[in-house]
């Protein structure tokens, strides 16, 4: 029942999407273009993804009856966020294929398990240590040094659930503020830049990655992505190979994002993996207008059992997130030549809330 190789949707079939945010919305729009329907499951009645589908389930992720009815209505289930509760995935997987597979969530929901997995593949990460008490924290600092970054093992995003630890800091206070007994300490990486690779893998093992994206954060939230990243070709090839290796090792079906740091190496820069997101990713939004196939379409193709696209980039691309009050300038963006504006249909602009994004494509000049 759950074997991913068994999934082969046909136009008119229905994809079930867990999560009703902008990622679910853009997945549903990509699916519609391919003649597929989507049903969105989200506990939030104001979910932006509800606006673009005919069928929606507004229920809690623990509502087994609602999950069963949802499963009955769809041909395959996917998700737009990584913190899908294990019990939710289990109920659904007993009835319909869930892609990417549930076991992938176990690896990517926990920073320690994820880092161990990446390290076992021989891929570089920041030095890290398991921390579950202030005594552990002191021992980890002895080993890793300062500055360092302490992160909760689970449920961290956009810089939440993490803090920088510097020499002289009150460690008891830092531990108390973190509010968990399960964390990791990471060496602080003096990175030159942050990049990400969006890769797709099909059930038959075909892998396609997009050109490497360079990411700029403000207040821990992605603000600007540029594609291609301004890095040497060999480094870009290395970054893509890492993402593809991870996708294959996870036996992954769908799109994933691998966030990496570029660090100065011995002679040439090198990359360290920061984080894996088992889903479409904000740093891949440029593909909607900047490439022949978007990350959203690529994900839908992968989970539908269809051939992956071979993405061709249309030029140099800049994606700017509209965060919080940035959205108030949408009319100005609408008048910018060459800009494509995406608004997520969310209500009030709260600080830090992703409200939309703008893509600008600068076509490559013919030589
Ligand atoms: P994360 O939640 O792990 O993606 O971290 C959010 C952001 O914090 C990253 O995009 C980096 O800008 C920064 N950051 C995270 N970990 C480290 C680290 N070990 N060293 C330096 N900066 C980091």
TrEMBL record:
It is an enzyme of class 6 (ligase). Residues 115-304 form the ATP-grasp domain. Its EC number is 6.3.4.18. It catalyses: 5-amino-1-(5-phospho-beta-D-ribosyl)imidazole + hydrogencarbonate + ATP = 5-carboxyamino-1-(5-phospho-D-ribosyl)imidazole + ADP + phosphate + 2 H(+). GO terms for cellular component: cytosol. Pathway: Purine metabolism; IMP biosynthesis via de novo pathway; 5-amino-1-(5-phospho-D-ribosyl)imidazole-4-carboxylate from 5-amino-1-(5-phospho-D-ribosyl)imidazole (N5-CAIR route): step 1/2. GO terms for biological process: 'de novo' IMP biosynthetic process. GO terms for molecular function: 5-(carboxyamino)imidazole ribonucleotide synthase activity; ATP binding; metal ion binding; phosphoribosylaminoimidazole carboxylase activity. ATP binds at residues 111, 151, 156-162, 186-189, 194, 217, 274-275. Keywords: ATP-binding, Ligase, Lyase, Nucleotide-binding, Purine biosynthesis. InterPro entries: ATP-grasp, ATP-grasp_carboxylate-amine, ATP_grasp_subdomain_1, PreATP-grasp_dom_sf, PurK, PurK_C, PurT/PurK_preATP-grasp, Rudment_hybrid_motif. The keyword ATP-binding applies. Homodimer. NCBIfam families: PRK06019.1-1 (NF004675), PRK06019.1-2 (NF004676), PRK06019.1-5 (NF004679), purK (TIGR01161). Catalyzes the ATP-dependent conversion of 5-aminoimidazole ribonucleotide (AIR) and HCO(3)(-) to N5-carboxyaminoimidazole ribonucleotide (N5-CAIR). Belongs to the PurK/PurT family. HAMAP family: PurK (MF_01928). This is N5-carboxyaminoimidazole ribonucleotide synthase. It comes from Bradyrhizobium macuxiense. The gene is purK.
